[in-house]
Amino acid sequence: MIFVGEGALLRRAVSHAAARGHRVDLVCSPDPLDAAAAAPGTPHLAAPDVNAAAADLAAACTDGIVWSVNNRQLFRAPVLSLGLRIVNVHNGLLPQHRGLPSAAVVFALLHGDTEYGATVHEVDAGIDTGPVLAEHRFPIGPADRFHEVMLRGVRACQTLFERTLPAVAAGERPRAAPPDAARPSGYYGRRALARLGEHRDAPSFVRATDLGPFAAHAPEVAEALHRVRP
What we know:
Number of domains: 1
Helix content: 25-40%
Structural class: alpha/beta
Distance between the termini: 45 Å
Mean pLDDT: 94
Radius of gyration: 18 Å
CATH topology: Rossmann fold
Number of strands: 9
Strand order of the largest sheet: 3-2-1-4-5-7-8
Number of helices: 9
């Protein structure tokens, strides 16, 4: 299997898969140390554009599975047309928390959402629109702040990856319950963050933008806040 993404969450996923006896064919990330999390000598590819490396992915993959973990890149036709099964671990519940996880957490708190979580889903041509395989939910308390929800979301991603890895590796396609129609689809990216100033008087604004230790890992939110509070 191939892993595409970056950071500590990716490394934990790669390490867990290797420790469970799964062959890690390639780690596609900015940092070669992400591959070393599996074992010394694990192939690494630094691809600023994963779609431009479609031929490399096709040549490397031995089981037809690509995991997207803490991955900011979008898979497009060059990769999607390879016939690989691409599975994404998303920090957020779908379809209501699509897009950048950092932005989704901000607006989940601003909108008064009472739960958050992580989702594992198949990747299609849309953004976080593929079929949901499994999800892990947790409640949002009335005093919870951005960094608390974000951290729980990261932990939920790791838990969900470990839970679904055996089934995905075995070719199974487990399905979570169909999305509740009362929870409409929502997409949160840079355009949503550009309108963050419109919410500065909201009662939950302070806790929704308390980045805490995630300030360095949520540059889009930090940049939007700088524009709101020059």
